[in-house]
Write a structure and sequence with these properties.
With about 150 residues, this protein is an all-alpha fold. It has helices at about 5-10, 10-30, 45-70, 75-100, 110-115, 120-135, 135-150.
């Protein structure tokens, strides 16, 4: 193991704390900003980024808690639920942003692809992926990462 890998493995708990803090602060700052401004056309949808940041930060802290004090089924379920809601909010923000750009999705089929059924369809794909993996909550988290995180980002 090289020095950098050793450094990260020895300080993984601190990394998770800072990682969680950055997302939590992102969500908190966006939540506290006034949204009535006409400067940003998507300001009405910024609350979705706030939800993502707050829940993603809390999930990172739950992972830290599990590494530090021991993982439990309740932590796994809570973390997975937070992950699901946070990445769904990120995906919905991106979907709304794409639909708000005039002329970007001109073809009718493209607009339909990015319709309101996108998130539920991807959640269903993530669930089926998790069932095929048969890895419990780890499989659900992997399914969410592949089917919701990637398109949401």
């Amino acid at each position: 193991m090289n020095n950098l890998s050793l450094l990260f493995s020895l300080h993984l708990a601190e990394i998770y704390l800072v990682y969680g803090l950055t997302f939590f602060v992102l969500g908190l700052v966006i939540l506290l900003q006034p949204k009535q401004s006409g400067v940003l056309k998507f300001s009405a949808d910024l609350w979705l980024i706030s939800v993502f940041g707050l829940l993603h930060g809390l999930k990172a802290w739950l992972e830290w808690w599990g590494m530090t004090y021991g993982q439990t089924a309740a932590l796994d379920m809570t973390g997975t639920a937070m992950h699901l809601v946070s990445v769904t909010a990120l995906l919905e923000f991106g979907r709304r942003l794409l639909l708000s750009i005039p002329g970007l999705l001109v073809k009718k089929n493209m607009r339909r692809l990015f319709g309101p059924a996108l998130a539920p369809a991807l959640v269903l794909c993530a669930g089926l992926f998790a069932l095929l993996l048969n890895e419990g909550w780890a499989g659900v988290n992997m399914g969410l990462r592949y089917w919701l995180n990637f398109p949401g980002a």
